[in-house]
Amino acid sequence: MQRLDEFMGQALTAYYNNRDPLGVDGDFTTAPEISQLFGEIIGIWAVQQWIKLGSPSKFNLIEIGPGRGTLMVDLLRGTAHVTAFKNAMKIHLVETSEKLAAKQKEALSNHDVQWHDHLSTISSEIPSIIIANEFFDALPVRQFKYNGNEWLEHYIDGDKSAWQSIDNPPLKSNLPTPQNGDIFEYSETQEDYLTILSIYHGASLIIDYGYTKSAYGDTVQALYKHTPCPITDNIGDADLTSHIDFEWMSSYFENGVIKTQSDFLAQNGIALRYHQLNNPSLLSGYDRLINPSQMGELFKVLEILNLKS
Ligand code: SAH
Predict the structure, then answer these.
(1) CA of 280 to the centre of ligand 1 (A)
(2) Prediction pTM value
(3) What pLDDT is recorded for position 25?
(4) Which domain holds residue 9?
(5) Residue to mutate, 8, 16, 239, 242, ligand 1, most ligand atoms under 8 Å from C-beta
């Protein structure tokens, strides 16, 4: 019998180590794979943060969970004309999958890049601009269910769920009084990452599918070849994710701002960039990124500016 987060951790390690899961032939598609505009607009955001930080002559440009490296390639191409920004950056990618790191090496072969297994090995002595797109949703979570007079924790026993009594679940302070059957999720791995992120002087951008107010709900899901399946099917071959609690996540920072992906992209000039490129083949991707019925409102952005040194 395994606790849900242990089960997810093992399944996800096997999953990411054995494949490139992105794209039509894989299990899911992400914003950078949908349109070059995504990485380009994040590049515009990054240059603005660098200016807010006082245009430092050295800074870390860090991406956590970079997939195929597409976002970084688009960001670097889109900002290549900002010479002082380009010359000041040290590029770091945090990636645990060797398979995807190899793809990233290929995509970024013209750039000087350092790879890491964890954010904590990157120096926080110089300012950092940190980007994580669909990274947090790929980390294991625990689940707790209220059964009327006590809390139970979700375990996986063979191919079944087994809920076991627990005395002190890590309750989130902003959740309302639970009703019978309410489930909440909590991730120690996410928390570790947030605690480390809060140490870095600079700016961070976290983008994920999620909700803006802490709430009850079972959001853990498995996706196999673009189709949902039970989490105990296709173990190690299906992608496992959860939705992100942005309110809880922003509580780790003094001045986090939460907005929709569509607002973030609009504020950073996606319409202007789209018209400037004047290429009709970019229309469907542009629409998918910002349309409220597509990714525009389901995906949220947490922007953090930490000017303390
Ligand atoms: N950001 C990319 C890929 C998202 S998929 C995009 O938007 O296309 C999740 C990414 O996080 C993959 O690159 C995966 O290998 C990586 N990843 C998953 N768990 C990780 C962990 N614990 N540490 C570092 N990277 C991880």
Answers:
(1) 31
(2) 0.97
(3) 83
(4) 2-139+187-210+241-306
(5) 16
